[in-house]
């Protein structure tokens, strides 16, 4: 359920950088429908080139990309256009990287999966009032499942290695992986 959000007048250019093509495409369409002029990139190199060519007013950048760290893009954007508003997305949230992202110029730091409304609220937040809590947050079971899936993918779908890193018995992990995602 999307809410109508009115964009402030002025430059509505938005750069999206994420190596998850399906997520990038969905977010790109959603942001265009909400009035942004969207460019997208799926690597750090392409993101840096886009910032160098024409620094956008807004950016949404994934923290970990196949060819490097999305914070390099945030830093480049902040140095080229200090008034730009950037949001960092990540499935690997921790306090240290959140602090680093803000120091480099990000205005917010969101955990994946984030929907378009969450992203827009973070991009347009003025800091006068705390953002409203999400209308339908993920369940704790879903958050756990997402984390396990991400570690599994990072371990190149190796069940034994994933189980070792998660400090979990291999058979327990196999049962979890065989089930459907919780809601």
Walk me through this protein's architecture.
- The protein has 183 residues and is α/β, with parallel strands linked by helices.
- The protein has two domains: 13-124, Rossmann fold; 140-178, Homeodomain-like (Arc Repressor Mutant, subunit A), CATH 1.10.10.
- 45% of the residues lie in helices and 17% in strands.
- The protein is built from eight helices and seven strands; from the N terminus they run βαβαβββαβαβαααα.
- It has helices at residues 21-33, 44-53, 71-80, 95-103, 116-124, 140-154, 159-165, 170-178, and strands spanning 13-17, 37-41, 58-62, 64-65, 68-69, 85-90, 106-111.
- It has a five-stranded parallel sheet with strand order 2-1-3-6-7, with helices on both faces. Strands 4-5 form a two-stranded antiparallel sheet.
- The model has no long low-confidence stretch (mean pLDDT 84).
- Keywords: DNA-binding, Phosphoprotein, Transcription, Transcription regulation, Two-component regulatory system.
- Residues 13-127 form the Response regulatory domain.
- This is Acid tolerance regulatory protein ActR.
- InterPro entries: ActR_PrrA_rreg, Bact_response_regulator, CheY-like_superfamily, Sig_transdc_resp-reg_receiver.
- One of its GO terms (molecular function) is DNA binding.
**What about the largest sheet?**
5 strands, parallel
Give the structural class.
alpha/beta
Strand content: 15-25%
Distance between the termini: 16 Å
> Count of DSSP helices?
8
Number of domains: 2
Rg measurement, Å: 17 Å
Tally the beta strands. 7
- The CATH H-level homologous superfamily of the largest domain: Response regulator
Examine the secondary-structure arrangement and name the CATH architecture of the largest domain: 3-Layer(aba) Sandwich
| Helix percentage range | 40-55%
SSE topology string: EHEHEEEHEHEHHHH
CATH topology of the largest domain: Rossmann fold
Spatially, the strands of the biggest sheet line up as: 2-1-3-6-7
Function: Member of the two-component regulatory system ActS/ActR acting in acid tolerance. These data implicate that a two-component sensor may be involved in pH sensing and/or response.
Protein name: Acid tolerance regulatory protein ActR
GO molecular function, one term: DNA binding
Organism: Devosia enhydra
